[in-house]
């Protein structure tokens, strides 16, 4: 059902198999309105979108039994995989619907959607714990009843995870749905988080869910349709995400870019080479009749979203998802706050990060001390033991691997030699050819020792695990002196 081809951090390149074909992930899933859609399914497929999502509740109200006779693929005019939202968004906006979860499940089975979603009770954002808990209970009951009555017909039912900002509810929801046997999970109610610029809380939710789910279960993110959120969501383990943002923004004359949105009336040039942007100037597009302008802007917005998904996928292939995500996180101050979730989620990021990569990792600033490769290397060093009682700590040489350094240093053979790197910590020469000790490129900058707490912790552990009576290092090295300056067994050492 879901095959993982390649991974980096918690991001995965995968293949999702459905009754109507395979979907390459990570994937953006455009929302198609079952009645008012103006961009046809053929155009979406031509642009490279392999799956769409539409609304089963609106379909039922508009078409009734006709939808079951025709099937959802004929109704919306899309012959690829289709996901159907059962009406959760309408519940969030307008309250409970005039239909039961069992009726909705029966309808979704009848229209043969590929990936149906049970009728849930979204928690949204800002609900008191008790109220949110009752919504989670209602959703879990509806999901339990739905999955028990589901037919074995190839449909992949989605378990909608609710709980909002209440992490314990999110975890309970995810664990329960996994026990019920849902093959795909979806994190509900993120739209309100994003509209409130609560990217940090959203990132915490995603990480919490990914901790609970096994890697074999793909994770969908509802309502995430802006390029600035896509790299972070993928890095934390989201495989698919949907949104109607491309059309909603277009209706407001808003133009999606890779780092935000712009008002069309304020633009002078288009920073894009899609068919729309190469065919019009902003002024020309602004002068077109509203309906046509909306559709053209929607097409551009789709191109912009897909470009970001493709760029993030390429970063996974290259093993540079960490670098790419941190670069993109600077698009908005509130988004940059969410980087803290990456630095605190080694347990989520490390399992999917390759132990060895074809390319050297890039190290820019103190944030990179928390990337999975650096954390894991420090853990390996923590197991290093030596019986030597004299330690020499040297700056990292340009030559890699660093064990070549010993040929040029006037150091006794019976001494333990280590080099150091602010991001990776202490590096014994015996381990200096391991990845990434010999496979990294640092920005040449002054490192403020107060910002490198992981270096201090790793150095302390290394010294506690090995009984050195004498430690030699260069007193003129401000970084090392900060950590070693008050140790009685340290002695001045001048490099040759």
Description:
By secondary structure, this protein is α/β, with parallel strands linked by helices. The chain is 41% helix and 17% strand. It contains 22 helices and 20 strands. The chain has a 5-stranded parallel β-sheet with strand order 4-11-10-9-8. Strand 16 (416-421) and strand 17 (425-428) form a beta hairpin. Helix 7 runs parallel beside helix 8, helix 8 (167-180) packs parallel to helix 10 and helix 12 runs antiparallel to helix 15. The radius of gyration is 27 Å and the shape is elongated. The model has no long low-confidence stretch (mean pLDDT 91).
Helix content class = 40-55%
Number of helices: 22
Radius of gyration: 27 Å
Low-confidence stretches: none
Structural class: alpha/beta
Distance between the termini: 61 Å
Strand order of the largest sheet: 4-11-10-9-8
Characterize the overall form.
elongated
Tell me about the largest β-sheet: 5 strands, parallel
Mean pLDDT: 91
Q: Could you tell me the strand content as a percent range?
A: 15-25%
What's the total number of strands?
A: 20
């Amino acid at each position: 059902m879901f095959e993982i081809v390649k991974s980096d951090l918690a991001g995965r390149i995968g293949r999702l198999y459905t009754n109507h074909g395979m979907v390459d992930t990570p994937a953006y899933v455009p929302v198609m309105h079952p009645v008012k859609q103006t961009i046809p399914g053929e155009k979406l497929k031509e642009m490279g979108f392999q799956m769409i999502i539409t609304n089963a509740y609106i379909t039922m109200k508009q078409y009734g039994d006709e939808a079951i006779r025709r099937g959802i693929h004929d109704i919306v005019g899309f012959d690829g995989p289709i996901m159907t939202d059962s009406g959760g968004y309408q519940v969030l906006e307008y309250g409970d619907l005039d239909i039961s979860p069992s009726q909705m499940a029966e309808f979704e089975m009848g229209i043969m959607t590929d990936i149906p979603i049970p009728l849930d009770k979204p928690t949204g954002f800002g609900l008191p714990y008790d109220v949110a808990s009752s919504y989670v209970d209602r959703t879990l009951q509806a999901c339990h009843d739905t999955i028990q009555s589901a037919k074995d017909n190839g449909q992949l039912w989605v378990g909608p995870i609710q709980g909002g900002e209440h992490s314990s509810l999110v975890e309970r929801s995810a664990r329960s749905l996994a026990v019920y046997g849902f093959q795909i999970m979806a994190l509900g109610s993120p739209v309100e988080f994003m509209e409130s610029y609560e990217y940090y809380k959203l990132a915490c939710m995603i990480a919490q869910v990914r901790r609970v789910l096994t890697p074999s279960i793909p994770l969908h993110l509802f309502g995430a349709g802006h390029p600035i959120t896509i790299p972070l969501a993928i890095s934390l383990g989201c495989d698919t995400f949907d949104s109607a943002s491309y059309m909603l923004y277009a209706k407001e004359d808003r133009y999606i870019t890779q780092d935000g949105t712009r008002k069309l009336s304020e633009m002078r040039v288009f920073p894009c080479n899609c068919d729309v942007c190469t065919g019009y100037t902003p002024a020309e597009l602004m002068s077109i009749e509203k309906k046509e302008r909306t559709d053209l802007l929607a097409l551009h917005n789709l191109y912009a979203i897909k470009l970001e998904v493709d760029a993030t996928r390429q970063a996974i292939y290259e093993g540079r998802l960490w670098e790419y995500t941190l670069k993109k996180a600077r698009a908005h101050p509130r988004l940059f706050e969410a980087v803290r979730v990456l630095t605190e989620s080694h347990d989520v990021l490390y399992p999917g990060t390759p132990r060895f990569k074809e390319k050297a990792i890039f190290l820019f600033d103190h944030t990179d001390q928390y990337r999975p490769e650096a954390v894991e290397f420090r853990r390996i060093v923590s197991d290093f033991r030596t019986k030597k009682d004299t330690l020499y700590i040297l700056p990292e040489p340009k030559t890699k691997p660093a064990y070549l350094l010993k040929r040029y240093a006037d150091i006794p053979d019976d001494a333990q030699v280590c080099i150091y790197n602010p991001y990776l910590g202490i590096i014994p020469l015996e381990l200096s050819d391991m990845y990434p000790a010999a496979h990294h490129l640092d920005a040449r900058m002054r490192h403020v020792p107060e910002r490198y707490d992981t270096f201090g912790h790793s150095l302390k552990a290394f010294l506690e695990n090995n009984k050195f009576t004498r430690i030699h290092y260069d007193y003129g090295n401000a970084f090392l002196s900060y950590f070693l300056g008050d140790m009685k067994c340290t002695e001045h050492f001048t490099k040759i």
